[in-house]
Amino acid sequence: MEIRWIEKLKKLIFRRSLVSEIHKKYLKLKVRRPLTRKQKREIRAYFKPWVKGPIPLIWHKFIYSRTAQFHVNYIPLFVYRSEMIGRMNYFPFMNAYADKNFFPILFPDQNQPKMIIQNIQGYYYSENQPITKEKAVELCSNLNNAIIKPAHTTRGIGVRKLITEQGVSNIDGKSVEEVLDSYGVNFLVQEFVDQHPDMSKLNPSSVNTIRLLTYRSGMEIILLYGVIRIGKKDVVIDNESAGGISAKINEDGTLAQYAYGAPGDDQVEVSDGGVTLKGYPIPSYHKVVETAKKMHFRLPYFDIVAWDFAIDRQGDPLCIEWNANPDLSQTAGGPAFGEYTERVLNETYKKINSRKKYW
């Protein structure tokens, strides 16, 4: 009984932290639109079949305020994080499967950035063969354009461009050995992606990626939404935390009119690369969608997956990484589950929540 009480308390604290986090973002908005009584009733009635207790309305208020678009089926993070993701995806396996060092093992036949070295639990590897630290330093001593990043990073934390010459790096003038030591264990160094010219136009300094959210329903893989993530001028990564923006990709592979960045920022119509977003065609978008659907079938422990794809110079999809615990891009992409919302909710709530003990 005591263990169950502790788990309930942790869950309550977790939920309150989610509400507090989005409330702080809401207060940063330049325009804050209140919900009408009718809208509030619609939200509560819509989620009543699945969610016990009151539904915090702050997520609907936040997205409605940012976009001026009201949809009853926006998914509150309160519901998604505490009740849905643990039913969709098997939490005990999440960290191991999502380790970026194991991506080549899970998908050896897929186009992906070339790996230079890997550090796994303190051991170094190159081309799937164990190597010494000295060899790892040697392989990284003269790199024209590479990326170093932690194996378990999220939101671009710790991702750095790495250029070296004769053992000296561009990172604060540190030696290659010092750079590798600063990352400790569980990281990787891979070649920087030579992206398609049409993707580079959006912002030349960053690899601008396509973020897809796919959902498995039996023998069907459904695309829930696609957004483009575009970096800020002179910044390497395209994450919002580094000033990046996101815009919806329409079904025909063209971009929507607006992109969104940090909560206090205005809507963006022109990227830092000078590209007007509305109607801009994303090369090979439908190839990316089909590739992600095929790859998702290899992940039976995860019903919902986020994919980050680049488009290489030849126009082929290049998978950067996948995420087993994805955020929802509802400001840019609209309601996360779109026309499939009720189907997803019905299927998800029939399953056991594996999030227990993982608050």
Structure characterization notes:
The model has no long low-confidence stretch (mean pLDDT 94). It is globular, with a radius of gyration of 21 Å. By secondary structure, the chain is of the alpha+beta class. It has two domains: 1-111 and 193-359, 2-Layer Sandwich (D-amino Acid Aminotransferase, Chain A, domain 1), CATH 3.30.470; 115-191, Dna Ligase, domain 1. Strands 3-2-1-8-4-5 form a six-stranded antiparallel sheet. It has helices at 2-28, 37-47, 58-67, 77-88, 91-97, 103-106, 133-139, 176-182, 197-200, 285-296, 330-333, 341-348, and strands at 115-120, 123-126, 129-131, 146-150, 160-162, 164-165, 168-169, 187-191, 209-217, 220-230, 245-249, 255-260, 304-311, 317-323. It is built from twelve helices and 14 strands. β2 (123-126) and β3 form a beta hairpin.
Q: Which strand order does the major sheet show?
A: 3-2-1-8-4-5
Q: How much strand content do the residues show?
A: 15-25%
Number of helical elements: 12
Q: CATH-wise, what's the superfamily of the largest domain?
A: ATP-grasp fold, B domain
Mean pLDDT: 94
Q: How many domains make up the coordinates?
A: 2
Please identify, by name, the CATH architecture of the largest domain: 2-Layer Sandwich
Ends apart, CA distance between termini: 18 Å
Largest sheet: 6 strands, antiparallel
Which fold does the CATH topology of the largest domain refer to?
D-amino Acid Aminotransferase, Chain A, domain 1
Q: Find the structural class using helix and strand composition.
A: alpha+beta
**How many E strands?**
14
Shape by Cα distribution? globular
SSE order in H/E notation?
HHHHHHEEEHEEEEHEHEEEEHEEHH
Radius of gyration: 21 Å
Model regions low in confidence, pLDDT < 50 over at least 5 residues: none
CATH class category label of the largest domain? Alpha Beta
Range of helix content: 25-40%
